[in-house]
Amino acid sequence: MRILFIEDSESLRRSLSLGLEKLGYSVDSAGNGAEGLSMALLGSYDILILDLMLPEVDGMAILKALRKRNIDIRVLILSARSEPEDKAQGILAGADDYLAKPFSFDELAARLINLMRRNTLMHFQDTICVADFKLNFQTKTLSFGTTDVDLTPNEYKIIECLFVNRPKVVTSQRLSEHITGSYDSVSKNAIEAHLSAARKKARRLGGELPIKNKRGFGYIVSV
């Protein structure tokens, strides 16, 4: 699991990054909001640990920018602001969790595990249109033109993950996690079988799913 940690305290960045790496996580960090936002937009991270009071670009602005772009990343706010209204504001802006400073490392680790158990992407729009296909997050449907493609739940989840992350390459492992969560897995052959079935269903309606296999890397939406 890849974590991005945006925090202006160098000592906290170093100690927390070291602790998380000992737990097996891959951790990148940034000391200011501008650098952190750029890394969050360009990188492929599973979780963002985000301080609110940052130089250059504050944490709330980073959070809103990521949610506006529908970036698939779980966000844990880690802040000295501990008032109930601060927490409410962070959650309403799109954070998945909020932990006030000071905190225990064990509690942080537990909250990260809990975040990775969540298999639902947060969406701040109802639909995504790619070519002639429209994905509706509210009804959990994919349509071609005016007709719904009859997808199974797993087929839908795969296409959802790929459409949301376009134009990035999405690995089979990432797709597996989106289908089942972090504590189970779906094989590459099973993912390919699901995609093959979805492609056939789209073709029956006259459509061609814009999803390609980038051999050795994963899958990508190409239009």
Short structural summary:
With 223 residues, the chain is of the alpha/beta class. The protein has helices at residues 10-22, 33-42, 59-68, 84-92, 105-117, 153-164, 172-180, 188-204, and strands at residues 2-6, 26-30, 47-50, 74-79, 97-100, 127-130, 133-136, 141-144, 147-149, 211-214, 218-221.
The secondary-structure class comes to alpha/beta
Shape: elongated
The total of beta strands comes to 11
Arithmetic mean of pLDDT:
87
Q: Give the topology string: H per helix, E per strand.
A: EHEHEHEHEHEEEEHHHEE
Q: Please, could you describe this protein's structure?
A:
- This protein is an alpha/beta fold.
- It is 42% helix and 21% strand.
- It has helices spanning 10-22, 33-42, 59-68, 84-92, 105-117, 153-164, 172-180, 188-204, and strands at residues 2-6, 26-30, 47-50, 74-79, 97-100, 127-130, 133-136, 141-144, 147-149, 211-214, 218-221.
- Strand 10 (211-214) and strand 11 (218-221) form a beta hairpin.
- The longest helix is centred in the C-terminal third of the chain and has 17 residues, at 188-204.
- The two termini are 29 Å apart.
- Mean pLDDT is 87; it is low at 119-124.
Features:
single chain; 223 residues; alpha/beta; five-stranded parallel beta sheet; four-stranded antiparallel beta sheet; 42% helix; elongated
